[in-house]
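@channel sequence for tomorrow's demo:
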Amino acid sequence: MLIPELRKLLGDDTQFFGVGGEKMRAAGFETVVDAAKIAAVGITEVVKHVPTIYREFFRMVSVARARKPDVAVLIDFPDFNLRLAEKLHHIGVPVVYFVSPQLWAWKQRRIWRVKKFVDRMLVIFPFEQDYYRAREVAAEYVGHPLADLPQPQISREAYARQFALDPPKPWIALLPGSRPKEFTLNLPELARAAQQLGTDYEYLIPLASPPLRQAVMERLGEVDGSQFHLVEDARAALLHSRAAVVASGTATVEATLIGTPFIVVYRVSGLSYAIGRRLVKVKNFGMVNLIAGREIVPELIQSDFTAENVVRELQRLIPDGDPRANMIGNLRQTADLLRQTSGTRNQTAIERAAQAIAEAAQRKAEIL
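C-alpha cells (generated this afternoon):
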C-alpha cells in the first residue's frame, strides 16, 4: 500500500529496495533481504536465528552503503531496524520509522537509538505520539492503516456458500496467529476449547498462506476436524462470527475495528515468557486494552490460556446480555480512537505516512 502512494508523490521511476516479502515484491520492490528470514517469535526463538539475522543485516548495510538511498523507511522489527538506523545515519541516509517499535512496553532504554538515529517517527496508535514527544522524538500519529479499510462487503450467506458453512448456526472465529510457531503453540488449545464448547457452533480458522493451511489441516487431523473450517479473509470471518478468540497481535486490532466480541490469547515458550515477563513494563498484552487504557477484553496469557478458561469467557460473551453489550460498546469507542486524527485533509494513514516520507526524500534530494 505504501509503495504505490510513494510513487504518486515521487514519480513512477522511484526505486524501492531493502527488507520485504511477497506482497512488497508484487508492488515492484527489490528484495535484498527476505523478511521471512529474520522473523522470529519470542526471545529463545530469536537466539536460534541470530547467525541468519546478522548475515542478512550486514548484507543490507552493504547494499545501502553502495546505493545510498534518498530515504530509508524502517517498519517494525526493532532489534534489526534500530541497529540498521544507526548504520544508515552514519551513511547519511535520512531515517523515517513507520510502525513504532514498542519501546513503551519493553526495552525502553532503546529510546536513545531512536533519538539519535531516527529523523522522524510515524506512529499508528494514538498514545504513542505523546510517549515519543515527551522524550523529544519527532513523532506524528498518522492513524492506523486498518482503520481506513471498509467493512467486508460479502454477505453471511455468500460467505457460507463459499466455505460450506451452516448459516443458521452461530460461528466462532479462531485466530491462532500467522506464524508457524504461533499456531503450533496456540491452535491445540483452541481446538480443545471448540470440542468442549460443542457442536452447536461452527469454528472458522482464517488462514491466507497455503503452507499454513496445510500445516493446520495436519494438526486438526489429531482431533475431530468436522467442526473446523479453514477460510480466507479474517475480517469477513470476524464480521460474521458471534465471538472470536484471537492471538495477541495485529489481528486484535482487526477484531476491534470489526467490533466482534473476542478474547485475547497467547503462548510462547516457557523460557521466553519467564524472561519477557520480567522485561515488559505494561500491564496488558492485548493492543486493544493498551489503546483503551484499561482491560476491556479478557486476556488469557501463557498458563491462563487453557481450553477451560476460553470456554468460560466465550460463554459470557456469546449470549445477549450485559457482558456482550458492554464489550461491543467499549470496542466501538476504542475503534473511534484509531480513526481520529487531526489536520488530515481526509487522507488515509498510508497517504499521511507517504507524505511524510516523500518530504524527507525530497529534502535529501535538495541538499544534494
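heads up for whoever presents: The mean pLDDT is 86.
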